[in-house]
Amino acid sequence: MEYRTLGRSGLKVSAITMGTFSFGGEGNFGMVGNQGVKEARRLVDLCIDRGVNLFDCANMYSTGTAEEILGEVLEGRYDDILVTSKARMRIGEGPNDEGVSRWHLIRECERSLKKLRTDHIDIYYMHEWDGLTPVEEKMAALDRLVADGKVRYIGCSNYSGWQVMKSLAAAQAMGTERFVTQQIHYTLEAREAEYELLPLSVDQGLGVLVWSPLAAGLLIGKHRRGAKTPEGTRQAAGWGEPPVRDMGRLWDIVDVLVEIGEGHGVSAAQVALAWLLTRPAVSSLVVGGRTEEQFLDNIGSVELELTAEDLSKLNDVSRLPLIYPYWHQHNFAGPRFSEADRALHGDYPDRFMGGEDSLV
Predict the structure, then answer these.
(1) 280 preceded by cis ω (within 30°)?
(2) What is the pLDDT of residues 152-205, one digit of tens each?
(3) Which structural domain range is residue 255 located in?
(4) Selected catalytic residue, list 3, 61, 186, 195
(5) Are 196 and 59 found together in one domain?
(6) Is the domain of 268 the same as that of 360?
(7) Is residue 314 assigned to a domain?
(8) Which candidate, 205, 191, 358, 173, places its Cα nearest to that of 281?
(9) Contact indicator for 130, 95 with CB cutoff of 8 Å
(10) Residue 61 a catalytic site member
């Protein structure tokens, strides 16, 4: 296993994180999986044996059941294991049962600690943006949780670039704890994060964790152009994430993944994950699964070394257009790009950079 430093913190996290989205299987989560304690323990032990040290959860996964299962499985083993949880999503019917108000965050953190059977959460994520709660209130509440020893590090998930920066600016102005990480959706099929979130992470020193790095299984090579949706998949069960806006492009990407995988003697899934591990600021990939074979295959991606030709093929088939203002910056600002700028622009070597007479 490879271990990477999480942003500007001193924390080392495994390149693969075990996701617990499928623990419990209550409500719509049953479309993904429904592992109970016995099955969860077997999969957690497999991941620990192969060096995974980070386990990702949230208070709303199966309405808290996932935290309860993970807590029972990890109880007594937290000395060497890191655990995350999240708050923000609606968790009840009351007016304060969602959001990032001080009241909600402190209550939900304390509830999560009890379910996880631990005295602290290593990384506590704001699961989604809340435009009604002042960012100062949110950051102050998180600072209090860190000061009280209930949380070690804080992060955000599913924020836009300006929302991350507004939170970081508030923390700096107030002298409170700042986000050290963000958890985002980012795949070969969904590269929108490269416009703002990856450059921001490089510039501000945020470690990136990637959720659903295989696009809910669409990139594993099992789903193919013109074929019937495979039985037993979450798509067959009616799961609607992630949205795919261009199915032809998706199948083109899958074709290249399968081709490269065959050349290396590995799965398309390993190729997709290995590509993500080459991307700027990426610290860890949150992978889930129903079987031991899935986890073993995903963990194997850490050892896969893609060639320059592989990376070029993957980039060519998947990169998104340079939208404004990036096409203009690409044409005129290139000589003064920082490493953060190049987190986006570096993938467009065939586009002219820096000339005053460039045409798009």
Answers:
(1) no
(2) 999 999 999 999 999 999 999 999 999 999 999 999 999 999 999 999 999 999
(3) 3-306
(4) 61
(5) yes
(6) no
(7) no
(8) 205
(9) no
(10) yes
